[in-house]
Write a structure and sequence with these properties.
By secondary structure, this protein is an alpha+beta fold. Helices cover about 25% and strands about 30% of the residues. The protein is elongated and about 55 Å long.
Amino acid sequence: MQRIRLRYTKRGRLRFTSHRDFQRAFERALRRSEVPMAYSAGFTPHPKVSYANAAPTGTGSEAEFLEIALTEARDPDVLRRLLDESLPDGLDITDAVEARTSGLAERLTASVWEMRLDGVDPEDARKAVALFNAAGTVEVQRKAKNGIRTFDARAAVADLRALDQAADRPGDGPCAILRLVVRHVTPAVRPDDVLSGLRAVADLAPPVPAAVTRLAQGLFDEESGTVTDPLAPDREAAPTARTAVAGAAVATAPEGAGSA
């Protein structure tokens, strides 16, 4: 009867939650909130939940998306609040819209990531970024199911820049902040692949693991180089209050009634 699209986060310690762990927590939240879920057919019915391009375990995110199918219509904002209250802090439902268009997964073509490199001088990071951006190809390796895979990490990076040191960072040591926009390609290029590329072209090696957070995810605009909100088309397709009232008036008007 109704499909709802949700945006959720993975913050703090819950960035180490695996996708399967989140699935279990979310399905428990659906039961606690008494959401009228639609279920699949077959011998083992399960709630109709579609997850889209989940972030790797260990990375934080402000922009994860999923879609649920309901058997009864619900107000998206009320549903968002109920689910958010039933999830642990850090797994937060931040947005909800009724699905009025198709192809949510097809609108997730790029991500904006932020990487905090503790122990790295911002000037060293800028030099490494410049070398990476100037390179035609940057080959990196990643262990896959079928062995070591070599691929180009440079082609998928639409933008990479070094920012000033974060003012909210505790302590007095150096800390470089990198902001990058990565297209979703095959094989997928992840932030740690970009770090491997920086090590390859500039010998940049943070002394501690980078803190990685996905800030946005959506359709990549080639002209502006920005990533747009994937839920915007559903909001734009929603009928306005005036349109809804007018439609109700037409539906209830006596047959043959005309203007005065």
